[in-house]
Amino acid sequence: MKNITIAGTIGKDAATRDAGKSTVTGWSVAVDDGWGDNKKTLWFDCSLWGKRGEALERHLVKGGKVTVTGDLSTREYDGKTYMTVNANDVTLQGGKPQGQADSYQAPAPDINDDVAF
Q: How do the domains of the chain map onto residue ranges?
């Protein structure tokens, strides 16, 4: 198992889909790497299974800041390698999604007490 913690900007709104007997919520996170002329952006596809993902979906919006900890893996598609994180922990950091006021702060999740993050 390879654990990773990333902090970055959400690249697309989260979406939840059925996955057998459960659901999975997916979104992408952009993380800057390097500096100056060597600066590049690394993209991670993140997923969170079950009710935790469903509860966070509306808060994981493009442009928001987030920290994700989970299991790192890769997948191949069309000759490209994608880095994926199966999230164990998600922390909303706030941020300013596109089209929002400068004072945007991600709201606290509105979920049942029995769901832990």
A: 3-95
Query: In terms of Cα–Cα distance, which of 109, 71, 96, 90 is closest to 9?
Result: 96
pTM assigned to the model: 0.77
What DSSP element (H or E) covers 55?
Answer: helix 50-56
- In CATH, the number for domain 3-95 is 2.40.50.140
* Vertex 110 angle, CA 16 and 92, to 5°: 70
pLDDT in single tens digits along all 117 residues of the chain: 789 999 999 999 999 999 999 999 999 999 999 999 999 999 999 999 999 999 999 999 999 999 999 999 998 989 888 899 999 999 999 765 555 543 334 444 444 444 444
